[in-house]
Predict the structure.
Amino acid sequence: MHALVIEDDPIIAMLIEDELHELGYRTVELASSEEEAIAAVAQTCPDLITSDGSLIAGSGAGAVRRIRASLKVPVIFITGDPERARDYVPGMPVLEKPFSIWQLIAAVEEVRPHASSPA
């Protein structure tokens, strides 16, 4: 499984990357701008995207809109403006910064298409 992390804060990006590896994502690509995110998806189709709403260069929300116009990949928004992010991709989890690792784990499990519940 491959994930794309759209985040312009390198510390937060690395934290998310580390946890996604722990959750079984074999590859994780980091994009710190809207254009980097679009270019990353053109190279490798992600199974999951985590995205900040606003970036220093462009918009995570804009990148997600552009990506999801042709690819229905699950998205977890991790942002300081959760109310606005809920409108970006309705029905997808939104985590408010600061967030906990447990919140991230729960959100990933919620959107993982082939997650199975323990018996």
Observations:
- The first helix runs from residue 10 to 22.
